[in-house]
Design brief:
The complex is a heterodimer of chains A (about 140) and B (about 190).
Chain A lengths: L15 E6 L2 E6 L5 E5 H4 L1 H9 L7 E10 L5 E9 L9 H16 L1 H5 L2 E8 H8 L5
Chain B lengths: L2 H13 L8 H23 L6 H8 L4 H18 L9 H27 L7 H21 L3 H10 L3 H14 L12
Helix pairs in contact in B: 1-2, 1-6, 2-5, 2-6, 4-5, 5-6
The chains are: A alpha+beta (about 140), B mainly alpha (about 190).
Chain lengths: ~140, ~190
Amino acid sequence: MELSPKAGENGAPYTRCSTKSGNLTAVFGTRDNEGMYIARAFAQQAQFFGAVSRLSLPQQVVSLTPTLGTDWNGNEAVFFQVVLLDNAVPRNQLLAFTKQISHSIITQLNPNEEWGVWPYFDFITQSEVARMKQPTWA
Amino acid sequence: MAYADDLLQYARQMAELHPNDAHQPSLRRALSSAYYALFHLLIGDAVANCTDPRFRATLARMFDHGPMKNVCENTVEKIKNLFHPTPPAEPERTIQYHLHNVADTFSQAQQNRNEADYNLLKEWQPGQVSLLIEAIEDAFKSWYIIREDEAAKDFLISMLPTREKKQGDRGSSQKQKPRPTLADPQDS
């Protein structure tokens, strides 16, 4: 158990201690002793993003952008935007290729068990990203 | 042709309505319809053994999006662990592979459906939507391969709401609210 008293932080009269168990971090406020659990990916964001940046991916992946948030159900999630080279693979192999990438990310990162976040994937090509960045009046 | 297949075909047609233009209403309806196609495919099979159409219709209404997604996520994790470190032998391996494909696709598709229907800030592109619909078409193929297997039937049964699950859902939602962050401890 790691104690980390933070009395007076942000002017709030409270202390808290945290304990790490698996992929969750418990935070206890002293006012009501209620424990709250947050995903490790949120509590240790620098480490999480560091782990993502170290992932080994195929050269057809131009960029991998993780965004922490919640899914529509309110559960902690990581949303990966995977930008692929145009014509990275023949079109009839694209679905299988994207599945290989998401499988590889899950295997290397273990986002649910290690970090407490459910992974979602959004695959898009470079030219589609460029099109999205054009202003609507262009 | 079954309703789920019709809906999936409709989704594909909507997605291809404006191939050179990111026409947001068409792309959003396509994503939403494709998710509902998979939703109705599973529910249709779950209630198929019920012979009376009125019972079937009532039973079908008992299925709920959130609990179905929870079952899918649990299934994905369970199968992931089943394959690690050594995958099971055939035919179990093939069955679990296809079940994983269905469960994982359902979970992703449901999130996309909500984004498509409610998040107007997100802009969809034709190629991106086409790929997502192809994933659902692939999940349909997987389901047709395994639908008669016991593992597939167990998967459907586990989606049925029970009193225990409802109590569990209430308990877990109470635990999760309010959503905690380290940035605003004064709310604790």
